[in-house]
Design brief:
Elements: H1 2-12, H2 19-44, H3 48-65, H4 77-86, H5 95-116, H6 127-150, H7 152-161
Helix pairs in contact: 2-3, 2-4
């Protein structure tokens, strides 16, 4: 176990000669992940600061725990929509806590699936299924924005706040 930890520390320790190149290579991704993360948090129905935190903690944690340097860890609109749909019934004041619990439960289930060896079944998900899933996400995003674009959300909110004249 001690040897594995030393090997891992050696792998994640930055090499001085590559540090400048690594920083220059990672800077565009770091800059672009901030607005993406904030937009994903709005899609999930939580404050944009949550997305700001996710835009830098996720890649750091993913980089330290992933088994390949080719993996990109970032926020996605599909995950944000799924999380937003899962916590849609939760009152707005409690959504941050609900999202934290959802994240912990999802992470725990993923770790349990990895320990049991369920990752081998991912190869059975066809391209057509993934295309359908992503198309459904796109349609959900567009239809979810229609009330805001048409102003119907604001009109309904104003009507509910207006005192009754009867």
């Amino acid at each position: 176990m001690g040897r594995r930890v030393r090997t891992w520390v050696d792998e994640v320790t930055p090499r001085r000669r590559l540090l400048k190149a690594d920083i220059l290579a990672g800077l565009p991704g770091a800059i672009s992940s901030v607005p993406d993360g904030m937009a994903a948090s709005v899609l999930a129905g939580v404050p944009p600061t949550h997305g700001l935190y996710a835009s830098f903690t996720g890649p750091i944690a993913g980089g330290l725990t992933s088994s390949t340097r080719l993996m990109v860890v970032t926020t996605t609109s599909a995950a944000a929509l799924a999380a937003g749909s899962a916590i849609a019934g939760v009152p707005e004041a409690q959504r941050s806590d609900a999202l934290l619990w959802l994240t912990l439960l999802t992470g725990g289930l993923m770790i349990a699936a990895a320990v049991v060896g369920l990752s081998r079944y991912v190869r059975f998900v066809s391209h057509s299924v993934m295309l359908g899933f992503l198309t459904g996400v796109a349609v959900n995003m567009v239809l979810g924005q229609l009330p805001d674009c048409s102003g119907s959300t604001q009109k309904a909110a104003r009507r509910s706040r207006r005192p009754s004249t009867r």
